[in-house]
Every structure is written in structure tokens, then in C-alpha cells.
Amino acid sequence: MGYARRKSRLLHVGSVAVGGTAPIAVQSMNASPAHDFEANLEELGKLAAAGCEISRFSVPDEAAAVVLKKLCERSPLPLVADIHFDYRLALLALDAGAAALRLNPGNIHSREGLKEIARAASARQVPIRVGVNAGSLDPRILREEGGVTAQALKRSALEAAALLEETGFHDICLSLKASNPRLCIEATRLVAEACDYPLHLGVTEAGFSVSGVIRSAVGIGTLLAEGIGDTLRVSLTDEPVEEVHAAWLILSALSLRERGPTLISCPGCGRTQVDIRQSARAVEDYLKNKSSRIKVAVMGCAVNGPGEAREADLGLAGGRGEFLLFKKGQIIRKMPESEALSALFREIDTFIEAEHSAADKN
Question: What pLDDT is recorded for position 329?
């Protein structure tokens, strides 16, 4: 079954296109204290280096809006101002130079305030993401829809979007998030059928480490595989750069976008006669901060090892206490297990240097 992406409107968050046929954009959110300019600027640099394309910045008060203004002047990434409760903070964020706004319709109850935001955003050509969260739905909608349901999330998003549209404002993105991946999937499917707004994907409060990545991959990956989604954030209880790494892994797993190295490694079994886990972990660590699109295979035995290693740019295939080293499908040499990693690392560096040299000539 072929992949067909949902058709959506195109908008721009600073220099980053979102929706239409634009690549699915990777987002994260600053985790540093909102009043600490230097910490946030440093964090933005790390996010950009990791492949983040848009970052969100929380604006809980006027002092944070002052920090936002300074960040907008120096940030390597376009910044989305995250606004809750007080619509006037959105107006300050626009004055500060925010590239986009994120508004939560569950806790901004002033209809006239929302319209004022829309008029100000329209004048500055700044898009607005209506970000609905299951944990902060309007009590009226909860009452009328019988609790936190996919229909309640959809209704909250579309009602807020309609209110913004009443002012003639159309640069709207929607997100419908919950900690339950199935609820995210069901709600986003509903809203995807009901409108052509660009959709931001995410599983909110996904958790820490492996469990958080898995919950996010299930929720986000299912929708992406169905052609739904224009931008995404993997929300983890971790450093923001880990969110970015996870986002790229999800996109790469679905062959939607690729960035950086790909590691293919087997899990090991009773046939394995080398320490495949230690070897694969060492290669993963070595590749982690490389930006090259190199594909490396680390395989443990003769069943799939040589085949997978031949398909990669570089690969190791294990035997009895030894490895075969492959490059572009050809065996370079056989070596003891103790020498394999250092030999592979040398080949990786040579491969990346040649790649960079070719790029410079072009």
C-alpha cells in the first residue's frame, strides 16, 4: 500500500515551511528557566546542532517576554511562544518577535482576547498553533462531550480555529495531544478528516527514556504512516536534544526524512560468538554526534550478518571470536574481535572525510 500524504495548507514559522508538500518539521521545546537568557541561548545552539528546526519557548509572564525578545534577536531557530491563561502575553510575544504562537484553548477563555491575538498575528504574518491538551480541556466541552474523548479534543481545536477565522486569520496549525497514544491517534484522525489545517503531532507527557520514545513512536509513527502530520515533537522527560534525536529516528524509520548515521545491529542469539551488544553499543556511541548519512551494520553471525553488512556503507559480520569488515558490499579483511572496532572507526572517519571532500568540490 503506497504512502499518500494528507493535503494541508502551507504556512511558515520563520524560515521553516510547515504543511503543504514541505518536509515534516522537527520541533522541541526549551527546558531552561524562562528568565535565564544565557541558558536558553546555549540550549538553542545545542538543539540546532542536533537537527531541531523549530523550538518552543514558554512565556509565563512579562519578564519571560523580555527574554524572548533577546532570544529572537540571536536564536539560530525560529521560536514559538507558548502561551497559557493570559492572552495579553501573546501580544507581548508578538511584539518580542516570536515566529509563531501556541495557544491553549482550554485555559484562554477570553473570546475577544483571542480575536485580538488573531488580528495582531495577522498584521505580523505570524501563524498560530491551537494546541489542545487532554489535561486542560475546557470544562464546558468536557461536560457536553462526556469527558476526555477524541471528539472532545477535536471539538476544542476546531472551535478555537473557527474563532480565529472569524477575524480573517487563516495561518492556523492544530495539535491534539494526550498521554494516551491511542487517544492522540483517534483525535488526530478525526480532525484530519474535518479540515485542511497543518497538523502538529505529539504524545504529551510521554515519559522518560525508552518508555517515552516507544509511546511517542506508536502515537506519532502511526499517524505519519497514514500520511497525517506536518510537524512533530517527541515530548520526553529528558534533555531536549534527546527529543530531537528520537524525532529523527521516527522519521527515518518510516523513510520520510533522514539525518545523520543509521546503525543496523542484530539482537544476538545462541549462534553469536562475539560480544555483539558491546560492539553495537560502542558503534552507536561513536556515530552519535556524526552528521553524515552513513549506514553502518554490526551483525553477530553468518545467518544475516554478511548480507546486512554488504547492504551498508560499512559493516561488521561476526564469526568465532572474529569479524569480517565490509565496505560497500566488499570484504576488506578478517580480523580478531579485539581489533574490529578500531578498524571500523578508522573506516568510518575515512568515509565521512571523503564525503565532506566531495561535497566541498560540488
Answer: 86
SS3 194: helix
Cell of 59: 512565556
Locus of grid cell 579485539:
338
DSSP of 1-48, one letter per residue?
----PPP--EEEETTEEEETTSPPEEEEE--S-TT-HHHHHHHHHHHH
* Mean pLDDT (the chain, rounded): 94
Other CB atoms closer than 10 Å to residue 78's CB: what's the count?
20
Residues 353, 355: Cα–Cα separation, whole Å: 5
Which of 226, 225, 221 has the alpha carbon at shortest distance from 203?
221
Surface-to-core class of residue 73, CB atoms within 10 Å of its CB (0-12 exposed, 13-18 middle, 19+ buried): exposed
Q: What residue ranges in the chain does DSSP mark as E strands?
A: 10-13, 16-19, 25-29, 54-58, 79-83, 100-103, 128-133, 172-177, 200-201, 231-233, 262-265, 295-299, 314-318, 322-327, 330-336
More confident residue, 306 or 295: 295
Question: CA distances (Å), 86 to each of 69, 72, 262, 285, 308, in order?
Answer: 18, 21, 44, 44, 55
Instruction: Kindly indicate the confidence band of residue 301, based on its pLDDT and cuts at 50, 70 and 90.
Output: confident
Three-state secondary-structure class, residue 305: helix
**CA atoms of 103 and 96, how far apart (whole Å):** 16
Q: What is the pLDDT of residues 170-211, one digit of tens each?
A: 999 999 999 999 999 999 999 999 999 999 999 987 677 789
What letter represents residue 6's amino acid?
R
Number of DSSP helices (H) and strands (E) in the chain, helices first = 12, 15
Q: What is the pLDDT of residues 158-174, one digit of tens each?
A: 999 999 999 999 999 99
Q: What is the DSSP string of 121-172?
A: HHHHT--EEEEEEGGG--HHHHHHHTSS-HHHHHHHHHHHHHHHHTTT---E
Q: What is the largest CA-CA distance in the chain?
A: 73
Pull the grid cell for residue 232.
Answer: 512533530
214-268 pLDDT, tens digit each: 999 999 999 999 999 999 999 999 999 999 999 999 999 999 998 889 999 988 8
Phi, psi of 3 (to 5 degrees): -90, 130
Q: What is the pLDDT of residue 209?
A: 75
